[in-house]
């Protein structure tokens, strides 16, 4: 008989030990995973529209925003792990698209703001300059923390370079720069500039005449510019680029120093402006080169530009007959009517009794106190798909149309505004959390004058496609239109600032024509501001195209300085018919006879817009609708000595020019 009593008693104990060991092994083989937070992670959230084609040496700006999806805060001045955009292509000497603003041969740009916390969006602006080689390029970039690429941030910018040299670059690459330009001045890799805007592309003047010029250059380097020591920054003339002729007038600092910085300080990323006048000492054609010089001995790279100047000798003075007025001088003083409290509305309203509430003024604006105030106009710039990027050289705010401040933004920091037609929400992406609003949103600087740059809006000038006219005074609003299912960029600003941006004429036209043109433009805009019939469904008063009036914003204001002079000289003046604001269409020319309103657009006839002979247009072709003022004929009348009021009263029959505000 076998005894099993002791073994049977030990089985439960052995089984318990066995199970305990097995459990321990299983625990060791499959430990519970701990989630590790990644310090540096990012997700591409937004970017400006890419460009597919560039001319040789054309400069292109591209902005991209990454959300900080990691645990670490991004710092722009982190010496060990700065957050930057680098090319991921192999670069031996220089990247094909490297521009003067690159930090080194592989590092394109750094963080736009000083700090980006986890969950916030950091923005980066890449400045690329197309090479002289015409080819198709695939440019590859990524986000880096120090020398380490952040996973999942790769992006490409495919660009085809044409065989055409960009207009702005032709002078830059011409092999005519003297060796003295290079050897007389030292360079510093931290001093760089990018020319962004200038008042004129070239100057034409008569010998003895002086003309003003303004240029704006972006500080693309890492050092401040100042109007005085230290870092005194001066726009200078390269004496080797012009000989035997002086250009300076009495306000130049010396024969070669044209102007110092207008502001006391221009930080990296900001725009510095330089204004001066040229007064050539001889007739001829010249191409002087200007450049920025720091502290008298250091060239700011990328600041060089040429300014074509044409100077003609003055004609001999004409012999005037007895009592004959000189050309372009008005023969008579203009008579301006002063509006009073009874003058309201447009001509379609009930007119006041003749002579009841207006008086004649002997001269131009300023001699009466009309009851109206300058209107705030809403201008439809363009419709956009996706989002619009904007920034400003000074601090600005993003607000909703109820006035609530949604975001405070530092100078030169980009913000993107968008609309979701499905969710019916507006979005603002910038420094800090993403903002979502059910109300329309807008951007405006915190101090006047408010000047906003639409960084992702391509609006090339008609005379030079390399110039982007994308800068506007006032506020910029994005507004969805249910009628045409489009997102509109709307520029809201005062009437007089709007008129400064009108580009319906050249700067060299006679001043009396400039005045007539501006009064007609003001009347046209005020009429639509009052009636609200043409663009009400799109939430603005006039559109920025020739569909209403050709409005080009702040760039045009800098370029067409005589337009601003005409705005100031006629402030608040409009064309009225029976004491109410009249609509004042105009076009380039008739063929000798103007057209009546109802001939072109039908509807009720307008007594001041009739068919009548235009002697100055005889022999010309008809360009435009030919209703109202012919611009070419009006210029001829101004040259013949007519003042602007008489010009307007000729084309708009039975009207007065009234001081409305």
Automatic annotation (TrEMBL):
This is Sporulation stage II protein D amidase enhancer LytB N-terminal domain-containing protein. Residues 484-577 form the Sporulation stage II protein D amidase enhancer LytB N-terminal domain. GO terms for biological process: sporulation resulting in formation of a cellular spore. It comes from Candidatus Uhrbacteria bacterium RIFCSPLOWO2_01_FULL_47_25. InterPro entries: Ig-like_fold, SpoIID/LytB, SpoIID/LytB_N. It comes from the Bacteria. Residues 1-29 form the signal peptide. Keywords: Signal.
């Amino acid at each position: 008989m076998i005894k099993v009593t002791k073994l049977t008693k030990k089985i439960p104990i052995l089984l318990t030990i066995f199970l305990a060991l097995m459990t321990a092994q299983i625990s060791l083989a499959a430990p519970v995973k701990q989630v590790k937070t990644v310090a540096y992670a990012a997700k591409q959230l937004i970017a400006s529209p890419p460009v597919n084609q560039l001319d040789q040496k054309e400069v292109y700006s591209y902005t991209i925003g990454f959300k900080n999806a990691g645990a670490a805060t991004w710092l722009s001045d982190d010496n060990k792990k700065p957050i930057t955009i680098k090319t991921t292509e192999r670069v031996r000497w220089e990247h094909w698209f490297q521009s003067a603003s690159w930090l080194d041969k592989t590092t394109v740009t750094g963080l736009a703001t000083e700090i980006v916390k986890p969950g916030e969006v950091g923005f980066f602006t890449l400045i690329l300059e197309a090479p002289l080689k015409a080819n198709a390029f695939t440019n590859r970039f990524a986000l880096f923390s120090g020398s380490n690429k952040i996973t999942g941030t790769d992006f490409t910018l495919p660009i085809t370079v044409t065989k055409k040299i960009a207009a702005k670059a032709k002078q830059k690459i011409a092999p005519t720069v003297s060796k003295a330009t290079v050897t007389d001045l030292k360079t510093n890799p931290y001093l760089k500039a990018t020319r962004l805007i200038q008042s004129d592309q070239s100057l034409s003047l008569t010998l003895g005449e002086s003309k003003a010029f303004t240029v704006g250059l972006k500080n693309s380097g890492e050092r401040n510019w100042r109007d005085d020591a230290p870092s005194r920054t001066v726009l200078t003339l390269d004496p080797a680029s012009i000989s035997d002729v002086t250009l300076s007038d009495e306000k130049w600092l010396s024969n070669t120093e044209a102007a110092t910085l207008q502001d006391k300080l221009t930080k990296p990323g900001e725009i510095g402006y330089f204004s001066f006048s040229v007064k050539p000492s001889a007739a001829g054609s010249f191409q002087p080169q200007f450049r920025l010089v720091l502290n008298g001995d250091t060239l700011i790279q990328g600041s060089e530009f040429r300014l074509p100047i044409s100077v003609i000798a003055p004609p001999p003075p004409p012999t005037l007959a007895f009592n004959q007025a000189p050309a372009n001088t008005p023969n008579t003083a203009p008579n301006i009517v002063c509006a009073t409290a009874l003058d309201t509305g447009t001509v379609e309203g009930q007119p006041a009794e003749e002579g009841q509430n207006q008086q004649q003024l002997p001269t131009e604006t300023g001699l009466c106190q009309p009851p109206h105030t300058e209107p705030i106009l809403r201008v439809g710039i363009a419709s956009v798909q996706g989002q619009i990027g904007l920034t400003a050289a000074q601090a600005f705010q993003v607000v909703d149309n109820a006035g609530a401040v949604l975001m405070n933004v530092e100078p030169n920091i980009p913000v993107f505004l968008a609309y979701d037609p499905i969710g019916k929400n507006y979005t603002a992406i910038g420094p800090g959390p993403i903002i979502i609003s059910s109300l329309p949103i807008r951007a405006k600087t915190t101090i006047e004058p408010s000047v906003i740059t639409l960084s992702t809006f391509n609006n090339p000038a008609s005379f030079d496609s390399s110039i982007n006219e994308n800068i506007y005074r006032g506020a910029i609003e994005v507004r969805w239109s249910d009628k045409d299912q489009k997102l509109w960029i709307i520029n809201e600003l005062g009437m007089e600032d709007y008129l400064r941006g009108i580009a319906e004429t050249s700067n060299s036209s006679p001043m009396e024509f400039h005045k007539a043109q501006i009064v007609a433009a003001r009347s046209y805009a005020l009429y639509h501001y009052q009636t609200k019939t043409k663009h009400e469904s799109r939430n603005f008063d006039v559109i920025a195209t020739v569909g209403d009036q050709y409005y080009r914003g702040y760039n045009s204001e800098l370029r067409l300085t005589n337009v601003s002079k005409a705005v100031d000289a006629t402030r608040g003046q409009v064309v009225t018919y029976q004491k109410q604001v009249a609509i004042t269409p105009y076009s380039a020319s008739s063929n000798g006879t103007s057209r009546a309103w109802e001939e072109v657009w039908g509807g009720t006839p307008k007594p001041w817009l009739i068919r009548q002979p235009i002697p100055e247009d005889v022999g010309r072709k008809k360009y435009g609708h030919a209703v109202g003022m012919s611009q070419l004929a009006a210029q001829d009348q101004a040259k013949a000595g007519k003042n602007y009021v008489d010009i307007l009263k000729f084309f708009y029959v039975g009207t007065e020019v009234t001081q409305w505000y």
